C-alpha cells in the first residue's frame, strides 16, 4: 500500500482573511466555497488540484503548546520562488520567523521561510536547494523543528 498526502484542512477564525492570505502568499485559486450560515468554507487549489480547505469554525489563535499540527510545509522549485513568497509575506505584515530565508540546518542546501497565517498557524515554504551558505538559526537542530 502506498500513501500520498491529499489536501490539508485547517480551521480558521475569519474565512475572508484566511482566503485572502493564502491566495496572496501561495497564489491558490478558489475551487469551491460556501457562505452558508454556520457552514462557511473555502476549497483552495492550484492547476485544478485541491490543496487546502479552510473551515470557519474556530476562535482565538493556533495553540502550539498542545498536541496537534506542528507546521505545514510547501515545496517550491527554487530559492527564488521562496524569496518571492517572502516578499509577499513581509508586505502582508505576517509574523516571519528567523527574519527571512534560512537553511534547514547547518550546511544544508535546502531551506526556506518560516511564518504564520492570520490565525497563528505555522507555515513553511522551502526549496530543495539554494540555501547553502546561509546561516542556520538553531545550531545542531533542524530549523523547521524550532520556530
UniProtKB/TrEMBL annotation:
PROSITE patterns assigned: GLYOXALASE_I_1, VOC
Keywords: Lyase, Metal-binding
Listed name of the protein: Lactoylglutathione lyase
Domain annotation VOC: ranges: 4-128
Gene3D superfamilies for this protein: 2,3-Dihydroxybiphenyl 1,2-Dioxygenase, domain 1
Organism, as annotated: Planobispora takensis
Example of a GO MF term: metal ion binding
Amino acid at each position: 500500500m502506498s500513501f500520498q498526502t491529499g489536501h490539508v484542512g485547517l480551521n480558521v477564525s475569519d474565512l475572508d482573511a484566511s482566503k485572502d492570505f493564502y491566495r496572496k502568499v501561495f497564489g491558490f485559486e478558489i475551487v469551491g466555497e460556501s457562505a452558508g450560515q454556520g457552514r462557511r468554507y473555502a476549497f483552495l487549489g492550484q492547476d485544478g488540484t485541491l490543496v487546502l480547505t479552510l473551515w470557519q469554525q474556530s476562535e482565538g489563535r493556533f495553540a502550539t503548546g498542545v498536541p496537534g499540527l506542528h507546521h505545514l510545509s510547501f515545496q517550491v522549485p527554487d530559492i527564488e520562488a521562496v524569496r518571492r513568497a517572502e516578499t509577499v509575506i513581509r508586505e502582508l505584515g505576517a509574523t516571519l520567523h528567523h527574519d527571512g530565508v534560512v537553511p534547514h540546518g547547518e550546511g544544508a542546501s535546502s531551506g526556506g521561510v518560516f511564518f504564520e497565517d492570520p490565525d497563528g498557524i505555522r507555515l513553511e515554504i522551502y526549496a530543495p536547494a539554494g540555501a547553502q551558505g546561509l546561516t542556520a538559526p538553531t545550531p545542531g537542530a533542524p530549523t523547521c523543528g524550532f520556530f
